[in-house]
Amino acid sequence: MGKRVFLAKNIITMVQETEPEAILCVDGRIAAVGKRKDILSHAGQRTEVIDFRDATILPGFIDPHSHICACANRLALADLSPAKSFDELIALLRQYKEQHSIPAGKWMIGFGYDNNFLKERKHPDCHVLDKASKENPILITHVSGHMGALNSLAMQEAGVSGNGYLEESEFMQVSAHVPAPSEEEMQKLMQLAQQEYLKYGITTAQEGIAREKEVELLKRTRLKLDVVGYVDLKQAKSAFDHCGAYKKQYKNHLRFGGYKIFLDGSPQGRTAWLSKPYEGESEYAGYGTYADEEVTQFFETALREQVQILAHCNGDAACEQFIRCLRAAREHTGLAVTNRPVMIHAQLVTRPQLAALKELGGIASFFNAHTYYWGGVHEKNLGRRAQTISPLHTAQEIGVCYTLHQDAPVIKPDMLFSVWCAVTRQTRAGKVLGADERIGVYDALKAITANAAYQYFEEKHKGTIEPGKLCDLAVLDKNPLTARTEQLRDIRVLATVKEGEILCQNKA
């Protein structure tokens, strides 16, 4: 690989106030950072020099939570995100069938509809989907990934009764058995998915719910960026047991970091587990996935094996269960919590819960773009509680480590959009939702670089630009620290560098 020098007008190292002008990369790692003249003199004449001129270089962005295999798979599905009504949804499915010449009897799968933005303001059912096709089994997935619907033929093949609408565990069990693309097609889709991540400056990605199928797919994939996988502890623990050489360190850019569990659903789907009822309900407050005893056992398993565990919890009742059961596991095992357990999404986590999370050595990873995408929906579902979703400023005040993620394919893996959301907390309608929970640009950038590296136990190798670390870089067309607030969402990634190699260059 040899030597390379990277130059740019601005280099934000995330570790020091002064901005250097050059980075020396030797065999994939940063050897020196400093003034242009000094670095070029130190590098020698045979060193390749890459000048990004007026651009700004940051550490490569680190994705704290997403589903890269699902992102790949989604590329083969009918995109239902444009649908604004049942009629439009039906038309998109029919168009997909025609464009892909899908024969009778073959499954049709769609992703991305959102009942909150359909004219009917409800989920489609089998009667709606039968209008798209009665000769093909159809399954469609809500944008959250937590619910969906089947047509009559799909219900028959899956052995499902009712009206075709399913949510949470019932839906996931059915969708897990739907025919997947061929191995050859999935490998092509995985390459495309990696390019999508690289396009947004991401050099480390995640597979946040791996079962046997995803584990084997990742092992066979030619990875360009680093991927950390988390295995479904409830459904596929044995898959993690067989990860062998992929557990402690990267092998061919792949590492399995631990386990994933679900403690509740989604707030926009009204399945997140709350301590008080949803607006307009006298009793319904969502629901948990498991009883305390089982959740405690999950945490005990992770503590005894000394591996990390990620727990999906959106509602404050689910966050409380996380705290309660982690404490119980610590008491039962007598082991210190050193595995940095992560509270994934943490939409309605409270101040006392964040303080408890800090005491336990845990991390909060926020899906903070909820303020934009579903801010209005949360106001309808949660009332005043919507003001404190993704409480980043509170987390900062308390001093708990936090990161920002996009949960792709729920939304695009656009890290800089999450930064804009953290700084502005604007909804689709332009309203500021919970101004007190806004944070500064630098702190938001830290949440997708240095903090994210810490979440992965990789702070010695990634997250900042300093000697000894991997030369993973994101090259931007503007400096986010000096850009106007309204410009943050429009900053573009010009190039992505992984271990000194330019893997993606976007047109200026």
From TrEMBL:
**Residue stretches making up the Amidohydrolase domain:** 48-503
Task: Supply the CDD domains for this chain.
Answer: YtcJ_like (cd01300)
Q: Which GO terms describe its molecular function?
A: hydrolase activity, acting on carbon-nitrogen (but not peptide) bonds
Q: Name the InterPro entries on file.
A: Amidohydro_3, Metal-dep_hydrolase_composite, Metal_Hydrolase, YtcJ-like
Q: What is this protein called?
A: Amidohydrolase
Query: What organism, scientifically named, is this protein from?
Result: Candidatus Aphodoplasma excrementigallinarum
